[in-house]
Amino acid sequence: MDRRRRELLELKAIVLQAISHPLRLAILDVLRRGEQCVCDIARRVGAKRSNVSRHLSVMANAGVLSYRKEGLMVYYRLCCPCILEALECVTRVLREQGDRRRTLLRKL
Asked: How far apart (Å, rounded) are the C-alpha atoms in residues 42 and 52?
């Protein structure tokens, strides 16, 4: 594998690592509705603001989210909403696994 291909794969891994946490996935789900302030995100996911801020920072540093400040408020949004399509694909994978497991169990 050449250096450029390896670098691209490493960058993809950074993005995937940045979203690979249940709370971060919940945050992405909240942000599917559009830009939200940290306080609203925290309320909707049922977590402390400080914890949510830490997770938002990880995703922003990976380029998944962008943010803007308005006075004391910080608003986050998805940089590329198409990431939600990738998450839908994961849901389809889980459904397929469930279908295979059910079929296997019926054969027992």
From this structure: 6
What is the tens place of the pLDDT at every residue in 30-42?
Answer: 999 999 999 999 9
For the chain, domain boundaries: 3-79
CATH 1.10.10.10 is held by the domain 3-79: yes
Q: Are 55 and 23 in contact (CB under 8 A)?
A: yes
Q: Which helix (H) or strand (E) holds 18?
A: helix 3-19
Q: Is pTM beyond 0.90 here?
A: no
Q: How many residues does the chain have?
A: 108
State the Rg of the chain over Cα.
Answer: 17
From 64, 93, 90, select the one nearest 77 (Cα to Cα): 64
Q: How is residue 71 annotated by DSSP?
A: T
- Alpha-carbon distance 34 to 13, whole Å? 25
Amino acid at 34: G
